[in-house]
Structure formats: structure tokens, C-alpha cells
């Protein structure tokens, strides 16, 4: 398994969710596309996959004329409006955006229409790594046949146009690594077929909409923004297999309603989100979890005993919190555990096999705790100051008044990797996540 380092203690993450389907197939059978979940890579592992090559032959120039194909005419109007509000294009992505033959435009991909397979429509836009500066015009809503938008690693700014609500076939939306601002863009909640949402590394702010966690999304990436307030008390209804909200400033507790993700969630990253309180026992009911990272928060109390049931768990990071008690044998014996980091806490005892994780081939880090006779531990004075005031998690349940708020967000060294572009819809090469 290949890893990216994203903390100073060698915990690694890679976000690669190969949801992208061949556009032609997607357009002919969206209901199957929505149900399809290809074998996905895990957040901490680099997974190589191949996108199927679609039928993207450019149509006859006549097909792009106003009379023969009104949809391509609308696409022409939309793309020309977009080009007019692009004020920097260092790699000349839009230099080919000339004339009515939009299927010949760089970064624009056409496919047969769902309504009439005999005509072509603009089904995808991929401007990844273009370093393009500008914003998204209202005319974007004219591209009503779009199945995917990939705008990773550009300098688009401003807010998302409300006309995006017209993109009722949109399946993937990747706006990561840009300069979008404003509150959470609720327009994305109105997209009925959306499955992949990537908003990370922008400047969105304010609370997350509770409705986000009620949509049937497969992957949710909202990390590295300026979201505040608290995680919504009700997280029910989501079908997400990956949820990454790291490096925001939510505060409050992880609500017990996280259990509503039990049937789907495989990767949960809550790094550096100012979480406090105890981890709820419900965290152990997420039986499909493979990755759990709650490092760099203000969590207290013991490791929930229910976590001994996470039989698929591979990566567990509890580092840089104020957790106490024992490191339970039930967690250390998890059959698939490969990396367990619990450094920079106040644990005082390692139970059973936890004392010798190396014998199980588990990479671990137990520094800066309160383990007697182990190297690189906290001082006795430092340990006593915390251990003399144990936390009773049953007296401080996390079930309603999710405290929160906290001081202004100050980034730490816990950083989720920069957003990596979704690959071109017709590329046969495995995408680069380096």
C-alpha cells in the first residue's frame, strides 16, 4: 500500500474515488451509473484504475449549427459567456473556444443526448490544472446535459451561480483548489443525480447545510475551507462511503447520529476541526470503516469500547488530543489494522498485545503519553495534571447542545493533501495523485 505523508507522524492520505464512468455509458444509463460503485481506492492508498474510453468523435460541423442542434447552440452561448469572464488563461485552454463547433473546444466533451441519441450534447467539462482565473457565469445553466464538471486547480472565484440548479444530470462536481467564496453553496443540494461532490481547498464559510448529509452522495469532500459552527446534530440519510471535513473550525462534539452512515461509510476524516468532548460509542457501529482519523482535535475520555467491532479498520489515528484511559486490546487485535497512531494523548496503559504491536506487523506511534517505563513520554507532572481529573463521558453526553464555536481557525501541521484532479473523462491512463 502506497501512502502520502500528511502529518509529522507519518500518517498518510490520498483521496482517490474512482466514480467516473464513461460519459457515453453514463448518458445512456444514468440509473445504472448511480448504482455502480467500482472498487474504490482508500483515502490512504494510491489506487490505479482505468477510465473507459468514450465515444467522443467530433460530430460533423453541420451538427453544431444553430438549426440542426439547438442544444449545441445553447452550449455555444454558455461557453462564449464563460470565456468572456475568464481574465487569465496562461495555458490557453480556451484559445480553441472559437466558433459554433463546441465539441472541438479543448476541455469540452460531447456524447449522445439522453433524449435523442442521434444528436450530440456537451456532456462534460474538464479544465483541471488550467490555472484559469475568472468566475462562473449564470449562462452555465444552459449546459443542462452536463454529467461532470472538473475545475480542479484553477483560480476561479466568486460564488456559484444559482442557474446550476438546471444541471439536473450532473453526476460529478469537482471545484477543488480554487477561490470560491460565500456560504455553503446550497445550489448543489438541488442536483438530483449528483454523486461526487468536491469543494475542498476553497474559501467557503459559515455552517454546513444539514441537507448535505441527507443527499445520496457517494463522496463528500469539504475539507480545507472556513466552515464554522458545529457539525449538524442530525447526519441521517446520507449514503456516502467517504466523508472528509478536515481542517475547518466546527467545534462541538461528533454527534451520535454519525451512526446513520453505518451501512456505507468507509473513510471518515475529521482532522483539525476543533472537535471536543468524547468520541461517541456510535463510532464503533460504523462497521464498514477502513479509515478513521480524528487527530488534532480536543477530544477527551477513553477510546470507546465499541471500536473493537471495527473489523475492517486499517488506519486509526487518534493523535494530538487529550484522551485518557487504556489502549484496549480489542482495538489492537482488529484483524485488518495496519497503522495505529495514538501519540500526544494521556493514555496510561496499553492492554495485552497493544504493548507489542510490532509483533503483529502494525505500524504505531505511542509517544507523548503517560506509559510508565516507555521512552518519549510526558512528564509525571504533566500526566498528573490531566489524570487527576478524569472525564466521565456518560455525564457529558454529546446529544444536543453541540457546544462549539471556538476561537478563530488557526491551521496546524495536520493537513489533508491538496485536492487532486479528477482525470479527463476519456483518459485511459491512471490519474496522478502525486
TrEMBL record:
Among InterPro entries, the record links this protein to: Leu-rich_rpt, LRR_dom_sf, LRR_extensin-like_regulator
One GO term of the cellular component aspect?
membrane
Where are the annotated segments for Disordered?
45-66
Which Gene3D superfamilies does the entry mention? Ribonuclease Inhibitor
Q: Where is the composition biased (Basic residues)?
A: 45-56
Keywords of this entry: Cell wall, Glycoprotein, Hydroxylation, Leucine-rich repeat, Membrane, Repeat, Secreted, Signal
Name assigned to this protein: Cell wall hydroxyproline-rich glycoprotein
What organism does the UniProt record list as the source?
Answer: Prunus persica (Peach)
The major lineage groups are:
Eukaryota, Viridiplantae, Streptophyta, Embryophyta, Tracheophyta
Amino acid at each position: 500500500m502506497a501512502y502520502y505523508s500528511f502529518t509529522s507522524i507519518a500518517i498518510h492520505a490520498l483521496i482517490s474515488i474512482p466514480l467516473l464512468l464513461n460519459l457515453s455509458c453514463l448518458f445512456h444509463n444514468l440509473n445504472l451509473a448511480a448504482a455502480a460503485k467500482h472498487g474504490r481506492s482508500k483515502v490512504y492508498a494510491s489506487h490505479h484504475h482505468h477510465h473507459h474510453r468514450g465515444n467522443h468523435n467530433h460530430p460533423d460541423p453541420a451538427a453544431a449549427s444553430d438549426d440542426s442542434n439547438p442544444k449545441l447552440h445553447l452550449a455555444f452561448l454558455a461557453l462564449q459567456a464563460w470565456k468572456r469572464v475568464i481574465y487569465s488563461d496562461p495555458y490557453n485552454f480556451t484559445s480553441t473556444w472559437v466558433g459554433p463547433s463546441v465539441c472541438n473546444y479543448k476541455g469540452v466533451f460531447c456524447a449522445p443526448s439522453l433524449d435523442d441519441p442521434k444528436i450530440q450534447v456537451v456532456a462534460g467539462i474538464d479544465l483541471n490544472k488550467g490555472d484559469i482565473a475568472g468566475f462562473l457565469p449564470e449562462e452555465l445553466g444552459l449546459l443542462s446535459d452536463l454529467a461532470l464538471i472538473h475545475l480542479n486547480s484553477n483560480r476561479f472565484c466568486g460564488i456559484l451561480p444559482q442557474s446550476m440548479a438546471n444541471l439536473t444530470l450532473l453526476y460529478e462536481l469537482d471545484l477543488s483548489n480554487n477561490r470560491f467564496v460565500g456560504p455553503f453553496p446550497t445550489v448543489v443540494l438541488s442536483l438530483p443525480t449528483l454523486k461526487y461532490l468536491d469543494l475542498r481547498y476553497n474559501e467557503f464559510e459559515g455552517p454546513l447545510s444539514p441537507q448535505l448529509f441527507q443527499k445520496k452522495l457517494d463522496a463528500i469532500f469539504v475539507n480545507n475551507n472556513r466552515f464554522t459552527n458545529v457539525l449538524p446534530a442530525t447526519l441521517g440519510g446520507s449514503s456516502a462511503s467517504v466523508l472528509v471535513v478536515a481542517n475547518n473550525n466546527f467545534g462541538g462534539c461528533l454527534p451520535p447520529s454519525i451512526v446513520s452512515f453505518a451501512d456505507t461509510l468507509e473513510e471518515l476524516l475529521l482532522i483539525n476541526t476543533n472537535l471536543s468532548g468524547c468520541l461517541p460509542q456510535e463510532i464503533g457501529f460504523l462497521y464498514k470503516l477502513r479509515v478513521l482519523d480524528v487527530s488534532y482535535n480536543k477530544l477527551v475520555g477513553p477510546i470507546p469500547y465499541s471500536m473493537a467491532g471495527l473489523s475492517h479498520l486499517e488506519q486509526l489515528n487518534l493523535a494530538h488530543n487529550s484522551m485518557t484511559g487504556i489502549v484496549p486490546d480489542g482495538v489492537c487485535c482488529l484483524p485488518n489494522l495496519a497503522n495505529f497512531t495514538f501519540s500526544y494523548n494521556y493514555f496510561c496503559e496499553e492492554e495485552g498485545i497493544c504493548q507489542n504491536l510490532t509483533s503483529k506487523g502494525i505500524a504505531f506511534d505511542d509517544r507523548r503519553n503517560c506509559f510508565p517505563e516507555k521512552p518519549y513520554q510526558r512528564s509525571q507532572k504533566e500526566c498528573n495534571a490531566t489524570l487527576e481529573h478524569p472525564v466521565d463521558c456518560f455525564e457529558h453526553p454529546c446529544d444536543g447542545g453541540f457546544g462549539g464555536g471556538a476561537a478563530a481557525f488557526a491551521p496546524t501541521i495536520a493537513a489533508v493533501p491538496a485536492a487532486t484532479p479528477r482525470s479527463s473523462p476519456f483518459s485511459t491512463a491512471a490519474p496522478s495523485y502525486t
